[in-house]
Amino acid sequence: MQRIDRKSAAAILLPLSWSPVVESATASAPVNIALAKYWGKRDEELHLPVTDSFSVALDHHTTTTVRQAIASDDITLNSIPLPTDSPFYIRCVKFLDLARPSPSFFFSIATTNTVPTAAGLASSASGFAALTLALNTFFGWNLNRQKLSCLARLGSGSACRSVYTGFVRWQKGSSPDGSDSYAIPYDDWWPELNLAILMLSPQEKPISSRQAMRLTVETSPVYALWPEQVVKDTIAIMTGIRERNFPAFGQAVERNALMMHATMFTSTPPVCYWLEKTISSMNMVWQARKQGVELYFTMDAGPNIKLLYLQQDAQSVLSYFPQARAVTLLP
Ligand code: 2P0
């Protein structure tokens, strides 16, 4: 397949030249949780996914302010300057290179997360989406949401979903330049839907999701089943929302997360983010379900569990999991 580099992919989205139109610009973007996961890229450079994915926004945000700096890029995260050799600084600068009006232009970036770090939700998705929105204002690009979503994707794939609130579908697209790989909002909302975080370990991941994703695509025999499964799960999730069929919705969400982890277990070498507590918590969810509580879970590339349930079951769920922290979803 024809390969397009990041600069060329960004050039399709941006004007021919630009310079700041304001002294500073601030923007916020929500954290999103995938219900049908983005797992596997067809293009590593442009973060183009193998499949669609589907997410819901949380009422937790990243807020980012962009200014011009004098001699080099400086980036602060929750008021702490990022070391220039830290992986996140390097990732941000690689993204800022796309927005730099000239090689001698430098950025001052201040980023804060409303997410308590201990909640395990600190997210590159909300971070790159907020940075994209702030750059759009800073340079007066006036990009529409579609282009903003494409641009955010060049920072981190899942960031393309964080330019919207509510339920969001990232359509994978097929163009080699990624111009049709962006998120679109899903025009329905489920006010009774609840999510709570079961924080089982605040420890850093043994392997980044980016690396795990790559390893899985390259080595897991189960990965061949994944694309078709995501299509089925996404349809079941969207239909479940439309019809307010919580068991159908929950089963699809849970199956999708388990299938993603199945691709990891079967990679070489195997990747397992689960802890013993992860497995016992899953068992507790299944036990609760047997006892009539409509409770399902999802998991990302980590050991923590996100519980999904309807408002009517909130009390029962919290009696099974008193340590779970409910998080508001953002329509
Ligand atoms: C998701 N994850 O859909 C999936 C589920 C992790 C598990 O998106 O390489 O940081 O920056 O495009 O977006 C995490 O991967 O990966 C992720 P890059 P990203 O939310």
Oligomeric state of this protein: single chain
End-to-end Cα distance, whole Å, is 38 Å
Largest sheet: 7 strands, mixed
Order of helices and strands: HEEEEEEHEHHEEEHHHHEEHE
Number of alpha- plus pi-helical segments = 9
Approximate shape: globular
Counted up, domains total 2
What integer value in Å does the Rg equal?
20 Å
How confident is the prediction overall: mean pLDDT?
96
Secondary structure class reads alpha+beta
Number of strands: 13
CATH fold-level assignment of the largest domain: Ribosomal Protein S5, domain 2
Q: What small ligands are held by the chains?
A: ligand 2P0
Q: Report the portion of residues in β strands.
A: 15-25%
Low-confidence stretches: none
Gross CATH architecture of the largest domain: 2-Layer Sandwich
Outline the structure in words.
The relative contact order is 0.16. This protein starts with 5 loop residues before the first helix and ends with a strand. The protein is α+β, with helices and mostly antiparallel strands. The chain is built from 9 helices and 13 strands. Strands 1, 4, 5, 6, 7, 8 and 9 form a 7-stranded mixed beta sheet that branches. It has a 4-stranded antiparallel beta sheet with strand order 11-12-10-13. It has a two-stranded antiparallel sheet with strand order 2-3. The protein has 2 domains: 6-185, Ribosomal Protein S5, domain 2 (2-Layer Sandwich); 193-327, Alpha-Beta Plaits (2-Layer Sandwich), CATH 3.30.70.890. Ligand 2P0 binds next to helix 3 and helix 5. Ligand 2P0 binds at residues 34, 37-39, 47, 53, 124-125, 156-158, 209-210, 300-301.
